[in-house]
Amino acid sequence: MQALVEAIREQGVILPGGILKVDGLVNHQLLPHLTREMGERFAAGFAPLKPNKVVTIEVSGIAPALATALVLNVPLVYARKKKPITMQEPTFTAQSLSRTKGGAVDLFVSSEYLGPGDRVVVIDDFLASGGTLRALAGIIALSGAELLGLGCVIEKGFEEGRARLADLNVPILTLANIVRMNEAEGVVVEAGR
Ligand SMILES: O=P(O)(O)OC[C@H]1O[C@H](OP(=O)(O)OP(=O)(O)O)[C@H](O)[C@@H]1O
Ligand SMILES: O=c1[nH]c(=O)c2nc[nH]c2[nH]1
Fold this sequence. Notes:
Blueprint: H1 2-11, E1 13-15, E2 19-21, H2 23-27, H3 32-46, E3 53-57, H4 62-72, E4 76-79, E5 91-97, E6 104-110, E7 119-127, H5 131-143, E8 146-156, H6 161-164, E9 172-182, E10 186-191
Parallel strand pairs: 3-4, 3-7, 7-8, 8-9
Antiparallel strand pairs: 1-2, 5-6, 9-10
Helix pairs in contact: 3-4
The protein binds 1-O-pyrophosphono-5-O-phosphono-alpha-D-ribofuranose and xanthine (XAN).
Binding site for 5-phospho-alpha-D-ribose 1-diphosphate: 128-132
GO molecular function: xanthine phosphoribosyltransferase activity
Protein name: Xanthine phosphoribosyltransferase
């Protein structure tokens, strides 16, 4: 997605610990036209699989996931990181590590909104180590739903999350790929795959 690649080139900042700051387009401020195109790209890629639900994780996954769900015309379910008292039991839960806040994070999805018969596409903002998507895939498996595909806005190819998720045996679609990033070269980014 060329517009995304250009926005990352313009705004991406390398932070310590191998973190790419893209707060101006994905993680704090959103650019609606860019978000809409993300949704269109994911929807075009996944529509042939006939999903009936999009699943993501709060908070940064919600915008691209909603843009995708709008085009596919299916509901969007987002995993919560704290279980609210409104959430109906039984719930499906898994743990992941937060890359930007540190520490373990619990993810919760209620059986009220995910279960057998659901055909799910997962959308998130970053694919880095793959740990978060692995946790969400675990929740989907626990629920009895079928995972059809994974879509991430930005892949950090050098963290090799894609290879780690290969055993899930589903297509992985990303819109921009960070090949490497360092002080000398800056952020080396190409179209996703
Ligand atoms: O592939 P991984 O190594 O698991 O990294 C990707 C995850 O890390 C971020 O979550 P984080 O909890 O940092 O932030 P968020 O609250 O902005 O979604 C991001 O939103 C992805 O969900
Ligand atoms: O804002 C972010 N920048 C990153 O580099 C990253 N990796 C995983 N999750 C991330 N979030």
